Amino acid sequence: MNKTLRTPVIAGNxxxxxxxxxxxxxxxELIPLTEGAQCEVVLCVPYIDLPTVLSSASGTNLKVGAQNxxxxxxGAFTGEIAAAMLKDIxxxxxxVGHSERRALxxxxxxxxxxxxxxxxxxGLKVILCVGEVKEERQQGxxxxxxxxxxxIALAGVSAEELQQRVVVAYEPVWAIGTGLTATAEQANEVNxxxxxxxxxxYDQDVADRTxxxxxxxxxxxxxxxxxxxxxxxxxxxxxxxxxxxxxxAIVAAAG
Length: 255
Ligand code: 13P
Fold this sequence. Notes:
The protein is α/β, with parallel strands linked by helices. The chain has helices spanning 20-34, 50-57, 83-88, 99-104, 109-121, 134-138, 142-153, 159-165, 184-201, 204-208, 223-227, 244-253; strands at residues 9-13, 40-44, 62-66, 93-96, 125-130, 166-170, 211-215, 234-237. Strand 2, helix 2 and strand 3 form a beta-alpha-beta unit.
């Protein structure tokens, strides 16, 4: 359980916010604020903002990600974006399986697995989101749910792909956008549960080298405590990633 084997990843999920001009302004504000970062810093932005943010981030240590991709290589999928399209324009990361996509757009564990496989095949890095809803936590089945989501999504993923190109993000759904953060202990308990599963599915060394983030109302005030937990290797940040100073403070807390 050696945390030094992992470089923390702090990723902003801008969700469906910011027109290209606003995206450019925020990315450019973040460059000087994050240039000394000791962690990987990723901005996951709306598709339409990708070219602008890629151009602003070029030559800096900011990485750019999308928020979803389709599982097929190409074809008759009106309105969808293929992983290879993202890779082609220089995108490095893609979020897969976010709870908003599961709840609102019909993503299932199976389609999340397919999207994960497609993203890896296209050469992207994946931020794989898992997490329980409030009722599942109340029923005491959080770990079962998160283990199932993780296991299905990773079914076709090799050990090498996992440790080099997959970040698992534990995002309790009840903590997303609600201001209700998991306690540091709750976050660490589930992240450790995910790491134990990875040790079962792969081996302990692979598990120890895989980055597992926490996400859900992480902000400038609670980040340090969450990120200090032994199994919390970074954060996936929604609301607070839209404010440069707050996001920069979270990045600094990961250092
Ligand atoms: P909030 O940080 O706004 O709770 O969102 C978390 C999230 O969903 C990141 O993917």
